[in-house]
Each structure stands twice: as structure tokens, then as C-alpha cells.
Amino acid sequence: xxxxxxxxxxTKDAFAPFGDVLxxxxxxxxxxxxxxxxxxxxxxxxxxxDGTAGxxxxxxxxxxxPITLEMVERHPEGSQAFLPMSxxxxxxxxxxxxxxxxxxxxxxxxxxxxxxxxxRGTWHGVLTPLHAPGLFAVVDRIGDGANLQEHWFDTPFIxxx
Length: 161
Known about the structure:
The protein is mainly beta. The protein is 2% helix and 50% strand. It is built from one helix and 16 strands.
């Protein structure tokens, strides 16, 4: 039998144990570019071990609900930020670490325009857009060595809206 996960709205407080929510909210920290641009400064902690930060582009196939969650992954050598390049929601799955394995997963639905930065070592699901295009800019560690650990669940979870 599958376990059921209900989607939660993505908020900074709910996501804080797992990383940063990237969004434009409230007044900008600074007004720049001749007064025509608000800068929301230093929104995420880029945490890289033994490598450099790089920007990659990911083009993911959209999925539809319900979604079967069979595995999560983590990156022990660096944080990983996902910035959507379209104004669509996507599903974010995270789980706390419990002695080297993922604990109970949580599933969030982003608001259009929100991105996330997974803290280094955070268990998370794979990139899961709900609409095309599934195009994202990703800021993460570039370097040699193993930076991917996967965990496959004995019993899958089903993510419902």
C-alpha cells in the first residue's frame, strides 16, 4: 500500500529546515539601475565544499497529479537552487535526515515565481514541474567527487493535490 502526501503551500517558515524559498515579497532591499529595479539581496546561502558554484539549465518533462514518489536524493557537497524560467508552479519534496536516511517526506506546491534552494545534504525529490516548459536555472556545486546519494523507498508515496 502506498503512503499519501498532501501538497502544502510553500512558505519560508515551513521550508526553513530544508533551505531557502526564493521569491520577491515585500519591499526590496535596495533600488538600483537608475531607480528602475528592486534588488532582493542575498536570498539564499550557496554552500559549496571542494568545488565551485556554477549555473546549469535543466529542461524537465512536466508531470501531472497524482505523482508517485519512489526516491529522494541529496547532495552532501553543496546546496542546490532551482529557479524556474517560467511563471508556473512546481512540486517540491523534502525530507529530514534521520541517521543518514530520509525521514517522513513533505510535499510543497510553489506559487508561480517561487524557487527553492536546498541546503547542503537535504533529502529532496527530483525536479517536478507541472507545466511546460519545465525549464529551470540551477545553481549548484561543480567539481570532482561523489555529490549524489539516492534513497529508494520500500513503499512509494503518492503526492495528491
